[in-house]
TrEMBL record:
<feature type="domain" description="EF-hand">
    <location>
        <begin position="78"/>
        <end position="113"/>
    </location>
</feature>
<protein>
    <recommendedName>
        <fullName>EF-hand domain-containing protein</fullName>
    </recommendedName>
</protein>
<dbReference type="InterPro" id="IPR018247">
    <property type="entry name" value="EF_Hand_1_Ca_BS"/>
</dbReference>
<dbReference type="InterPro" id="IPR011992">
    <property type="entry name" value="EF-hand-dom_pair"/>
</dbReference>
<dbReference type="GO" id="GO:0005509">
    <property type="term" value="F:calcium ion binding"/>
</dbReference>
<keyword id="KW-0106">Calcium</keyword>
<dbReference type="InterPro" id="IPR002048">
    <property type="entry name" value="EF_hand_dom"/>
</dbReference>
<dbReference type="Pfam" id="PF13202">
    <property type="entry name" value="EF-hand_5"/>
</dbReference>
């Protein structure tokens, strides 16, 4: 598909209670030149996230960090300036790369039954040096190509 045959719109809504974010919502609409469109919706409340995170036997990100990672995943290139911060938050061991385990810490509340190795397929699409890890350049490609959105929408 030619690049000009597809346009997208992403709306972000942030609901706050005092100084605290209580919910984020993303509505994604992709338009094709032929008139077809695809709509996706993802909303995450602090209460729901924390409830799910408490039941998971794996490390998870605190809600405030989770939503900083979620934003570029959902908004793609529209949130280009947020990608380095999301990368830093996911790079738990400060190695300069994100491995499957670090990416999996983001996943449980979005796709509760996800298996970290299912993520490998997505990582391999942008992993130029085949080390099964993402550096910042590869992570940026994952976000810009919409692969991050596919992951958060459960299209594993």
């Amino acid at each position: 598909m030619a690049k000009n045959d597809y346009k997208a719109r992403v709306d972000e809504t942030i609901k706050m209670h005092g100084n605290r974010i209580d919910e984020v919502e993303y509505v994604y609409i992709g338009f094709r030149k032929n008139g077809e469109h695809e709509d996706y919706h993802r909303a995450v409340t602090r209460a729901d996230y924390e409830r799910v995170a408490a039941t998971i036997q794996k490390p998870t990100l605190p809600f405030d960090k989770f939503i900083k990672v979620l934003r570029p995943f959902m908004m793609g290139a529209f949130a280009h300036d947020d990608i380095p911060e999301a990368f830093r938050l996911l790079d738990a061991d400060h190695s300069g790369t994100i491995d499957i385990g670090e990416l999996a810490a983001f996943m449980p509340a979005i796709v509760p039954n996800s298996n970290p190795y299912i993520l490998l397929h997505h990582i391999q699409q942008v992993d130029k040096n085949n080390d099964f890890k993402l550096n910042l350049e590869e992570f940026t490609a994952l976000i810009h190509r919409g692969i991050g959105r596919d992951i958060t929408l459960g299209r594993l």
